[in-house]
Amino acid sequence: MTYLTDENIDFIYDDIRTKGITSENLLHEMVDHICCMLEPQLSENNTFDTLYQNFINTLHQNQFSKIQFQTNLSTNLKFQNMKKSMFISGAIGTFMLISGVLFKINHWPGAGIMLVLATFIIVALFLPTFFIVGYRENEEKRNLFLTIIGYLTVSFLILGPVFKIMHWPGTDFLVFFGPLLLATLFLPFYLVSVFRKSNETRTNYLFIILLVAIGFSFMYSLSAVNMTKDRIDRYYEAYNANLDAYELFAHKSDSLYSLPDSTNSLQALGSVHTASTALAADIDKLMLSLIQSANSPEATLRNFSIKDDKKVGKKMLDETDEDKILAEKIEDFRNLALSSTEDKDERQILMSHLDFTEQMDPYEYLSFEREPLIYILFQLSYIKKNIALAELELVK
Amino acid sequence: MIANDLLKGTLRTIVLKLLSENPRMYGYEITQKVEELSLGKIKLTFGALYPVLHKLEAEGYVQTESVSIGKRVRIYYRLTPEGNSWATVKIDEFIEFVKVMNYVLNPYPSVS
């Protein structure tokens, strides 16, 4: 076997170095490898020059810089650890998110914390590493703009629903700009970048884009669907039952007031009675205005047809601070009721009737934005019923 | 020829197996050995091989030594003690995988 001359070897070193191999060990290896490949073929007819040229022709363009790039990535342990943490945070985040949604649907305690934590893990840990890894693994045609837009789009799409569930401010902004970014910036730019890729990978990416688009449109269309008929009917029944119960309790209190042996303490409850009647009337007025704004001006508390309107609550809150005013009135009434008795048990019963923040999810109590009309009515009628119940407790 | 995407995940195992049977090997030797053992069906390109070798080195499973041969330098790889025990695990794992795949793809072997 003939061996390559020192000049040949120097030539290979220089050539490969200029073609992009920079690290010392890799350079030695590549040269040795190429020498080992060429030497057995050397003969009088096959000179080094032709053999080497033939060999270089079999390689892709940029093959050497690609090898250098890939070696750098795979020996960069920091990058490899980042990739690992990406998978771990992604798995934990997704698991928590799914559990959180499941808890939320079933109204189990802890759903809020899980959702917030899962969102934090996904948006602050998983997504940044995901996009940085994708950016750095891409050897050619890196696109920082697309990476940032991608991160923002996905973050908004995830934060929007979570903010909404948590009733945090900024929901409208996120829910509006998430899909907007997706449709106007991310998808167009991403499609263009995918079409610049080779045919084989292109189909895969297109498939992913399709799935993402289908998934999100489906999700967003679901959020536009109003309550099911079944749930509307159940809330409507409960609302009517609350109105009936109020009348029953109020009537009972009235009859107790008018008993001939009513004592002085009963007389002292006059202020409570006035307050409860006034509050009930306020609630009636509020309910009626909501019903009429969703239906026609002829609609009454007991007779209306559109029950799942989601805009009236928001409209009312935009115009007035009715929710805060009502919350104050309810609190005033509770303090008044509590001040009119010294009995410990009785006070406890009053609190159980009138402390609504205890009975309801604090986020849901008097929070009418985007809630269907019938749900708001149900909540208001429930409050009204309990006011009468508290008064009855005092009169007894 | 074995398709490249099938080889992707198994290249590490192949390299580990060869290194566990030989005290030390260099890159070209590994490609030749693989070709020989696979009856010419697996042709490793250096583009695939060297990133894997360097990754194994960075993770501490192999160590290198440089030997000058005239003008050129040959880099030999050998398994570290840690790499040796890890190789055993990985190879067993892979043999198990091949067995299972065999069951899956060939559930009713013909009785000869």
Gyration radius over CA of chain B: 16 Å
Question: Helical residue percent of chain B?
Answer: 55-70%
Arithmetic mean of pLDDT of chain A: 83
How many helical stretches of chain A?
Answer: 17
* Total DSSP helices of chain B: 5
Overall strand count of chain A: 0
Number of domains of chain B: 1
- Assign an overall shape of chain B: globular
H/E series of chain A, N to C? HHHHHHHHHHHHHHHHH
CATH architecture of chain B: Orthogonal Bundle
Give the C-alpha Rg of chain A: 36 Å
Task: Map the helices and strands.
The complex is a heterodimer of chains A (396) and B (112).
Chain A: H1 6-18, H2 24-38, H3 48-58, H4 63-75, H5 77-106, H6 111-137, H7 144-166, H8 171-195, H9 199-224, H10 229-257, H11 264-268, H12 270-294, H13 312-319, H14 322-339, H15 344-354, H16 356-359, H17 373-395
Helix pairs in contact in A: 1-2, 5-6, 6-7, 7-8, 8-9, 10-17, 12-14, 12-17, 14-15, 15-17
Chain B: H1 4-7, H2 11-21, E1 25-26, H3 27-37, H4 46-58, E2 62-69, E3 72-79, H5 81-105
Antiparallel strand pairs in B: 1-3, 2-3
Helix pairs in contact in B: 2-5
Walkthrough of the structure:
The complex is a heterodimer of chains A (396) and B (112). Chain A is mainly alpha-helical. Chain A has three domains: 6-70; 79-224, no CATH class; 229-395. Helix content of chain A is 77%, strand content 0%. Chain A contains 17 helices and no strands. Chain A has helices at 6-18, 24-38, 48-58, 63-75, 77-106, 111-137, 144-166, 171-195, 199-224, 229-257, 264-268, 270-294, 312-319, 322-339, 344-354, 356-359, 373-395. Chain A is rod-shaped and about 130 Å long. The model of chain A has no long low-confidence stretch (mean pLDDT 83). Chain B has 112 residues and is α+β, with helices and mostly antiparallel strands. Chain B has a single domain (4-105), classed as Orthogonal Bundle (Arc Repressor Mutant, subunit A). Helices cover 57% and strands 16% of the residues of chain B. Chain B has five helices and three strands; from the N terminus they run H-H-E-H-H-E-E-H. Chain B has a three-stranded antiparallel sheet. In chain B, helix 2 (11-21) packs across helix 5. The two termini of chain B are 28 Å apart. The model of chain B has no long low-confidence stretch (mean pLDDT 87). The chains are: A mainly alpha (396), B alpha+beta (112).
